[in-house]
Amino acid sequence: MFNKLKPVWLVAARELRDQFRDWRVLMPMIILIFCFPILMNEFAKQTVDFLNQYNANLIQERLVPFSIMIIGFFPITISLVVALESFVGEKERGTIEPMLSAPLDNWQLYFGKLLVGVITPLVASYLSIGFYLLMIIRQDLVMPSPSVMLQLMLLTTAHATLMVSAAIVISVQSTSVKAANLLASFIVVPVAILMQGEAVLLFWGNELVLWMAIAGVMIISLLLIRVGIAHFQREYLLGREIDVINLRWILRTFSKNLLGGARSLVDWYRNVLGNALRRIAPAILFVILIAGVSLWMGYDWIMDNVPQAIASASPEALERLEENVGEMPNLTNSDEHLNAPFLFLNNTRAIATIFVAGLVSFSVLGIMLYMVNIGLIGGLFAIFELLGRDPWPLFAYGVAPHGIFEIPALMIGSAVVLYIGVAIVTPQTGKSMGEVILELLADWTKVFIGLVIPLLAIAALIEAYITPNLLASVLK
Questions:
Q1: What is the crossing angle of helices 391-398 and 364-386, to 10°?
Q2: Which of 278, 339, 417, 445 is the most buried if burial means most Cβ atoms within 10 Å?
Q3: How many Cβ atoms sit within 10 Å of the Cβ of residue 16?
């Protein structure tokens, strides 16, 4: 094992020597390490002075952890330049051919570049955070607890791994350093938006949710590393000189995989769509298992938290709740508000959102949204039990009539998203990354148009015109 890892260290040592010789890389990092913490410290002092006027102690307690997270992020953005030119920079300098001809496996070469790309920003971030902590120790600021400090360090590590792994994937797929640097916005901007959500969790003070966010970022980072290794081809790096948008090839490849040479609609359903469903069959079984887990999680969360909230509520709030529960809606007139087109578009938008979220996160965010949708059913069961009603008749008449079409559509649509995430990180010899993505998009389009949309249309008709009458008869 050590003999296989030794070439990784050789590649990493070569990269480190190149970095420490380049003052254009070192100087911005040094300036950020020592100057940015001073600016954040001044910002923290001014903010504390302002909040003291309003006794906002809770915000003050979260201010230092928030500053630490921001301080750890900025050195990573500067060091991202090193990762972005890891392969394409070698190509422009004319030094990539000797490196690719070396007796190294693809994963050894890739991990050597990745190791340096991650270590450099992490060292800069840790030094910057340490310098900031030395400053606030001498001031009257609340230090974060050890658990929060551990979360912040892990979050910084996760951000560095995520951004560097994405940058190296871009470097492998780009043909020039200029193109790689322009594509860097697709790394920095999404991670900045992600950090806004993490800042909300930090100020919220829910450590469990923050742990889940750290785990999610690390999972996406590992998947990005897997994508880079799966689509790393030495011949591809040497043979391509310029990127050209070939719309004719894109449309031809997409339509070829979408139509599959079918001669009729029946032939398309039997062979083209049938083959796509057979490919995603393991993913369908997996999302069914996820559905069972999500139902239990939704049910368990409501049973654990809602009774505590009711017990701590005031008598006036409970009285208003009882009045609202007692006022059952007039389901016979529900078609005035919930008609079939509205329900169809709403459900279609939900499945399309799962697809988009899964596409940008290798299925992670898409499957999380799927779990939330399924978990709502388990939560609904628990709420009816807490209200003293038998949930099974309500489910049989209020959910099952349209659910036998809507829930399979949701499962199949989510299974395709899961299949896409797995297929992207799987090596496919002889195909470029763009060709693989086009084929996967064609598979999703087949299933979405040929199966998901018809199921959702039938479900919308039943939910709008049949389910309300059945449910109203039960509620009477």
A1: 130
A2: 417
A3: 14
Which residue positions in the chain have pLDDT lower than 70? 1-2, 22-25, 48-61, 140-142, 205-206, 235-245, 309-314, 317-319, 321-338, 429-430, 475-476
Structure tokens at 150: 């551990």
CB < 8 Å & 24+ apart, contacts of 92-101: 92/176, 92/177, 96/237, 96/238, 97/238, 99/11, 100/234, 100/237, 100/238
DSSP 271: I
Rounded to whole angstroms, the Cα distance separating 218 from 26 reads 27
Q: What is the SS3 assignment for 145?
A: coil
> Can you give the residue ranges of every domain in the chain?
2-239, 253-475
Question: Long-range contacts for 88-97 (Cβ within 8 Å, ≥24 apart)?
Answer: 88/171, 88/172, 88/174, 88/175, 88/176, 88/177, 88/179, 88/180, 89/171, 89/177, 91/175, 91/237, 91/238, 92/176, 92/177, 96/237, 96/238, 97/238
Q: Is residue 94 left, alpha or beta, with left meaning phi > 0 and alpha meaning psi from -120 to 50?
A: left
Q: Give residue 414's Cα distance to chain centre.
A: 14
Tokens representing residue 99 in the block: 């490196």
Q: Is the pTM of this model over 0.70?
A: yes
The tokens of 437 are what?
Answer: 């993505």
How does DSSP assign 363-428, residue by residue? Answer: THHHHHHHHHHHHHHHHHHHHHHHTT--HHHHHHHHTHHHHHHHHHHHHHHHHHHHHHHHHHTS--
What is the C-alpha R_g of the chain?
27
Tokens of 336: 């005035």
Inter-axis angle of helices 391-398 and 400-424, nearest 10: 80
CA 476/CA 471 separation, integer angstroms: 9
Q: Answer for the pair 421, 358: CB distance below 8 angstroms, yes or no.
A: yes
Please tell me the predicted confidence (pLDDT) of residue 118: 87
Q: pLDDT value at position 61?
A: 63
Structure tokens at 207: 């450590």
Nearest residue to 152 (alpha-carbon basis) of 77, 228, 89, 207: 207
pLDDT tens track for 120-141: 888 888 999 888 888 887 776 6
Which tens digits make up the pLDDT trace of 420-474? Answer: 988 887 877 667 777 888 889 999 999 999 999 999 999 999 988 888 888 777 7
Contact 131, 34 (CB under 8 A): yes
Q: Among candidates 274, 456, 425, 406, which has minimal Cα distance to 363?
A: 425
For residues 40 and 132, the answer to whether their CB atoms sit within 8 Å is yes
329 secondary structure, DSSP code: -
